[in-house]
Amino acid sequence: MSNFKFKKLNQRGQSAIEFIIVTIVVFFFLLFYMSFAITLVASEYVDYATFMSARTFKSGNDTRENQEKDARKVFGQYLDPISSVIRSPQVRFSDAGATSSYEVDLFYLPPLFIKNGAPPVSRLSLESEALLGRDPAINDCLNFFSGVANQLGFGGTFLANVMEDNGC
Q: What is the mean pLDDT of the chain?
């Protein structure tokens, strides 16, 4: 009989310890999946911002510099609501479209676990690309048709200015 009491006393608190271990594992997976969902949503948002900046870049303006300036402004406006999730966003433009790069934390660590403000180890570097091409700027068209007019002996930008549709 005394042997039974000894075994029973040794098992005290076992269910509490099991509960704590299972709870920690469940919360870890819950936080991981929530963080993963935030990463996916933010990634889709950056994809859309990249598309919209490429679309703005494609639209005509007087110079390429103004097209890029307007497209960067649109990119920044779309990223403002998620600026706390996305780290160091950058966008680059080419004649093919726009490419953005950014970083996002896959798993958010409480500030308690981050030493000396070092970035978490789980930071992902991602890229997004929107290839829409670029319509030539008005000045590009004028320069092209002026060059053609000069080669044909017409001279000046008269032909380009009187064209109803400049062909660009």
A: 80
pLDDT tens track for 136-164: 767 777 778 778 878 877 766 666 666 65
Of 37, 39, 46, the C-alpha closest to 129 is 46
**144 and 166 share one domain:** yes
**What tokens does 125 get?**
């570097």
Which strand (E) or helix (H) includes residue 40? helix 14-58
148 Cβ contact list (under 8 Å, min separation 6): 159
Residues 59 and 126 in one domain: yes
Question: Are 115 and 162 part of one and the same domain?
Answer: no
For 59-167, where are the alpha helices, taking DSSP H only? 64-79, 138-152, 158-162
Same domain flag for 112 and 76: yes
What average pLDDT does the segment 44-66 reach? 87
**Which element (helix H / strand E) includes 123?**
strand 123-130
Expressed in angstroms, the distance from the first to the final Cα of the chain is 98
- Structure-model confidence comparison of residues 58 and 167, the more confident one: 58
